[in-house]
Amino acid sequence: VEGGISSIKFDEFIIYLPRIGLDVTSEMVIRNLVAYESLTKSNCLIFARSVKLMCALINTVEDVKLLVDREIIETKLSNEVVAQLFNGLRESVDTGPRPGPGPGPARVQKLEQEIKKVRVKFDRIQNLLGMMLEFAFSFIVLFFIALLRDLVMLAVLVYCMNYPTTELICKQPEGWNYGSGNYSISSM
Known about the structure:
Blueprint: E1 9-11, E2 14-16, E3 20-22, H1 26-39, H2 46-57, H3 61-69, E4 73-75, H4 79-92, H5 106-162, H6 167-170
Parallel strand pairs: 3-4
Antiparallel strand pairs: 1-2
Helix pairs in contact: 1-2, 2-4, 3-4
Transmembrane segments: 128-148
Pfam family, one: DUF247
InterPro entries: DUF247_pln
């Protein structure tokens, strides 16, 4: 059958299977894909079920020879190695009912819970660091605003001391007498 694993069909006594290419790294790739699929939140394990189907079909070397002759399995590995590969995968592929709300077998659920705990702790630390950084940044901004305000006030005061005749900035309110050496900055 042309297509991928989603094109597997059952018709009375005939199973239509896609072609599968196997090499020396196939077992590692299949195990990793099954593990990845079991860690996702999907309730249907399409790849794991197709691997489980192949494990059910392949029990002996004769089963592998039949599938190689029908060009369902394309491999340069020996038939014995392919039979051992699928017989070894049989125990690790679990597509049965899943306990609890999460996906995968019980071990995967426990691993998922541990990962969730680590994520919660990491998120708390990230939030705390973010708040500290935000506080430090706002403190620095407020410090520089106050510094700028003080520098402007100091510049106006120095200007008024050097040019006391300027009445726009250095004008004292009427009736206030600070003496000859005192200057004030008027709000008017």
